[in-house]
């Protein structure tokens, strides 16, 4: 399972936790998950943060650029339902307002173990 | 039969020149082209007959030139060069119909192309010093006129012509001096007489003759440091002329070195050939580096010619050195490889120059930084240019690979030589072959990838249309030759081997076992490009089938077209594409010591703050370092001398009378 | 070509066995390449204190990729579609003719140093043209950098193997391997050691490992090889990935057999071939492991320092050749 990470307007809290999910303690890599550089190489998007107006089109484009079958993982409360920033100025909405979401990881920010847990559900290992 | 065919060829080419000059505008282009093509076919038949049968012909007529008469003789060595010229000429004749169709060239331009062709066919058959020099001068003059075709439109053309004229005439003067010296001491001016008397010539004399003629022939072949006219003249000449210059004329420089060094002087000393090989090494590396850094299509091709001539000279030099060291069989193999590469170079470089002309014709520019996306608009041109570009990069299955393999094997076998100097030269040759291989691939990936792939970088490139059928036939003919010689090189090698035998005085044994592939006769070393291509095709089909047959849901079967991935930017224009300049930048930086690029960066700041730039302009030029270091000081010195000398004649009659008197006195003193 | 095939059939009754051996080599490289990459990844993970993905992850990813959708960028020509195929088939042909499992490959006449180097160049050229086809900024940048690195590493490869060719008096790869089998004392000769050092540099550059390139980078500006293939998806990406893995396996196998030829099948026969296969696996795994260990403990070089490393490799190779010539 290769994922392209898209920061749609995150406070970077989720980024720190994602980095931890791939670090030695949780090591999501051992279950076959990997972050890649291009959506063309990806099986899905790992979206963090509330979707700002500036990032709505790029997020849509990244989704379009991903080969099917593809999944979208919304990581963190902001991505799932807008969280703290719901309805704020400059916000286009949560991730599912822009692209269809398959997996949601709630939490502000979610624990590395929770991220790993969600990725394991995707890789099936 | 060969005599008749050859002279029909010469006659037809001359007739083409005549008709081009006298017919009205509508007819002259086609008439000249058809007659030139017929001339090339006839010459090819004549030369082919000499090569296959191995029998030379010779003709002497006292009527044409006063005092000396004309001697013409075509032996297999000359016939090989005639044949190579004829093949390129055939493609060029066909191509010139479409090339001139939009703006019908003037009478002179229409006439000079066949005239140039005729002189190219004439030079390898010249069999006496007088005939040779007349043919050589005719070639220089007709090529100069052909180069000047567009002089009304572009100032650069006149500059290029001046450089070319100067270089070619300095070279011709050196050749003339050398050959006259030779004829004076050998007791006759026909080549046969000189060759018969070569044993009586003293070594210092032959060395002087060789060095003088080498200088002249190397300037025609475009060896560094005498190459400076190529990157100027090739871009400025019309493409059919550039194709003939690069595919046929530079070959004759190599021909001259072989004719004088091996045939007339009998091989001579080893150091002669080591000098030739050294010229080759320097030319190959310098040419390849500049080709990798150039952004003008035809300038790139011109430098690539310097590179390939360098490789041929490495082979010629190594062959001469091995022959001088007594290893005739090896020498024959290496010379065979060099001549095979020369023939292949004529094919792919002819094809590439015609392709570059098609680019310029269709897109209005030959600057790679302003091209792009032409593969979709001009698919046939792209395929033919691609075939030439991949051949010159020596990819397996194309002719460049076949001859470079043979050269590599030949040099490798030469390591068995006893002479340490020869081995060192061979080592330099092999290393050069390796280095230029990578650099050439980079240069031509740039030409092909930036020119034909991606998106158009200018309006001209965006509006380009495929060129007409006659131009495509011309390019396709040469591209087809590249493919055929790449897959079954064995079909032409026996023929070239005959020229090799004629080229080396001692007569080499057959270097190649008969067959379609390449197999050395002396050692167990062989390669069959046809088999490699077959294997490649099998692997390609298997890989394609494996991907095609993978289980996949129905809606995912066919590839989806999507916007190119621009990292999420919604604005993606051709301005963001890489250009040829930026493609070459890393390599240029690596080899900055040789290439010495000039950078010029200007930053204009906004009036409010120096932290915000308003505009940034970046200029970069890669000038020829040899030109800057060698030629500029010489030219400056000549100009300085001219200025100095201008002070002497001040218009006073008294002073001139005094000069006359002083000279008279001086002459009397010297004579007394 | 047909004539050559006919003579091949007539002269060698074991043709079928040799075709089989070549096919086995292709399959071995095809499967072994991704496994070697997996092994290197595993060693890297372990050294970093992680468990890391299983060694077979590369093969699993390939199986997944071929089932996915292919995406081609608008405006691309046939080059984008052909480039991955050419990359894989040139690597496969190399694998078929190089002495890996057996020293008697089917196209004996093609198993030449020069042919192998220029077949590898063919793959590089195809990939670089593919990178330029979409007309994106990073694709072209990757092509430019990859060709620059290749322009210096390919000559070093050719000259390094030349040092061995001079020693064995042939440029035929099976010939070199057979000659070194019968002269074990050659292994310690100075030209061999110098050539080995040069080849290691070349292999690192050609396969895009640290310190030349970082295969796991996400930052486009630091990419060399990854930038060229940003545009490929699904089956195309599977081909590119397997092609690159095959080139890695091939180069490691070549280094293994040129310098440590023991175990290779020189006589023919099923058992010898099996031994050859196991020996190839063991030797390449050992080299891959040491490359991975070096990789973990070094930092990537600045892009414009890379040519210095490569030029060093070229000089080492040239010194190897000179030493060989002097020592004759």
Structure description:
The complex is a heterotrimer of chains A (125), B (672) and C (328). By secondary structure, chain A is an alpha/beta fold. Chain A is built from 4 helices and 7 strands. Chain A has a single domain, classed as Rossmann fold (3-Layer(aba) Sandwich). In chain A, strand 1, helix 1 and strand 2 form a beta-alpha-beta unit. Chain B is mainly alpha-helical and 672 residues long. Chain B has 25 helices and 7 strands. In chain B, the strands form 3 sheets. Chain B has a two-stranded antiparallel ribbon. In chain B, helix 5 runs antiparallel to helix 6 and helix 16 runs antiparallel to helix 17. The termini of chain B are far apart. With 328 residues, chain C is mostly helical. Chain C has one domain. In chain C, helix 6 runs parallel beside helix 12. Classes of the chains: A alpha/beta (125), B mainly alpha (672), C mainly alpha (328). At the B-C interface, helix 15, helix 16, helix 17, strand 4 and helix 21 of B face helix 1, strand 1, helix 4, helix 5 and helix 6 of C.
Pick out its properties.
heterotrimer; A: 125 residues; alpha/beta; Rossmann fold; 5-stranded parallel sheet; two-stranded antiparallel sheet; 4 helices; globular; B: 672 residues; mainly alpha; 69% helix
Separate helix tally of chain A:
4
- Biggest β-sheet strands, sense, barrel of chain A: 5 strands, parallel
**Main beta sheet strand tally, sense and closure of chain C:** none
**Overall 3D form of chain A:** globular
Range of strand content of chain A: 15-25%
- Derived from helix and strand composition plus strand pairing, the structural class of chain A reads alpha/beta
Provide a count of the helices of chain C. Answer: 12
If you compute it from the alpha carbons, what radius of gyration of chain C comes out, rounded to the nearest whole angstrom?
Answer: 19 Å
- Total domains of chain C, how many? 1
Concise summary:
The complex is a heterotrimer of chains A (125), B (672) and C (328). By secondary structure, chain A is of the alpha/beta class.
